[in-house]
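Can anyone check this?
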Amino acid sequence: MKDGFFLRVQGVVRGPFTLNQLQTLLSRGQLQRFHEISSDKKKWIAAGSVVELFPAATVSVSEQSHLSASARTPTTTPDRSKNTPRSRLLKVWRFLSIFAIVAIVIAGGVHLLLKFNPADARRTDEVDAKRAVQILKTHCYECHGHGRKGTNKKFDVLDREVLVREIAGRPKLNFLTPGDLERSAIWKRIENDDMPDTDTKLTREEKEIVKKWILGGAEFSESPSSPPTVKVTNRQVAEMIDSVLNKTLEQTERRNTRFFVLHQLHNRGSGLKDLRLYRAALSKLLNSLSKRKEIAHPIPIDPDGLVLQINLLDYGWDESKWAALVKGYKYHFDEDAGLSERIRQQSGVDVYAIRADWFIASASKPPLYHDLLGIPNNVAALEKGLDVRRIQNIQQKQVIRAGFGAGRSGVSAQNRVIERHSGYYWISYDFQKENPRNDIMAFPLGPLAANLSPPDQPGLHFVADGGEIIFALPNELQGYMLINASGARINEGPSAVVSDPKDSSGAGFVITNGLSCFACHRHGLVEKFDEVQEKTGVKGNAKSRVAGLYRSKDELAGVFKKDNDKFLAALQECYRPFFTPDEAKKEKEPIVYCHKEYTRPLDFKKASCELEVTDERLRHAAESGGVFLVGSLGALRNGTMEREVWERIFPLVVRELQLGRPARD
């Protein structure tokens, strides 16, 4: 394609683009020097070497296209099939060349054998051990880490001393027996897919790594959370942002450009897979708070993807939305007053970059979830905004319903009715146990406002105590709302009506709007089918009205598939820069995972990493750093500190340690 070029960012190929389009991406800060460009998806060069994009470059994009085309064009060779003296000489030359090459290969192989160093093999073993331990951390530590929610509170899957002990009451069986798979309880559970106790099981490759690790002695060569060799500082992040704002963005776009950072997680030792989950969670949450039809991806501005850039307009946000978001953000502080002031002048805001993990944990639940998505205060306002005429649709039998018995919903011990309206709008009717009209088999014709009971059979309506609403966003992802009996918006579902027995969100057994919904509906709508038509006791006209509302399994399956196909396509697009479709299916729900990780209590190592000070300095401050530091850091001296406490004191600790000027105290 003439003037058609492809862009590769972190392994994801986009395009084709015209040269003008590439220059537009560059002006928006969405094309960086380290990104790669190709005209044929085969030969790739760094964007920074293209003179039309970066004037100091040495290669023209047209030259790159010509080189790629040349690489595809076969060259002709002279015919040497005739038996001439010259052809015989060429044959001898070829034979001698091949002989020389073989000799070199053999000599090189002998040289490598002579140079073999056992330390190289040990390094390979260390890499395998590190990969095995990282697998345990990724799949097991959440439930079986020190102080985690596992039933055995003393069991820590990353503590080798604990693992190799004999299991109480199980002679000759340890959690882990180095060199012996049969006596390793962990291997038995993994091999049979009994663990992890989630939909995400170990892959065949991961099992093979763990198996090889156990047979090789199960050494913990290096902690999977040990800090990386090269840390990225707040100052370096600010310099990256300053470069983007001042060198690549037009003035009109700077005011709508904001940044999310992951360098604290990188510095703490989060692996590549963890960081991919955070990027995926960021992309999903941003687009789940969007009013735009198109899915927009946060764009990395550095080769490691630790600083990600967005344009507020891509999500239908404005400066007031950003202001509402950062109002409670406590982690921003200035180390270099001049650099920070220059960035503020360019961006127009005091807080131009925030931690991605804080955003994911905070904006995935009320009040920020409601504020950023614009969820109104009651169901009537929501339905008006979505143009859903619920009562009218019910009266005209333009809905699809399913009702099912107590405990079948997975979130309620009582009966439940779910109802779909055109345009991907689902609402549930949920009940308390004490509600005299919670028996949907006896009272299937609710709600009362629809006036569905026949004149000769009055009072056949149910009365709901609340409900959950799932509606399609313009980009086909899902929005969520919880309501009480009067239809008012609520932050959490009353435990007498609904609960989360699996604690899938990690926020307790309470259902929290947004966060719990992301957990439950990670693969879309949960399919449930009707029992009312078969089990209801109503007769006559009432029975026919039931048949017009509550639908067959086939009809319900069809609308579930239709709606879920749309949702999953949008979700796949959110994840595209980070996971393949197959990987995305196997991964844990990223928003929920990141929320759990962020809200875990902090110890000295994690706290010092977030402050960018040494563990020793923070310990010294906690023991003899003045009244405030000694008092506020007391919890860390005694073990761990709750995240919400750390958030509250963070700017004060920054000020006391003289690390910079906090944006907010």
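Reply from J.R.: I decoded it. The first helix runs from residue 19 to 27.
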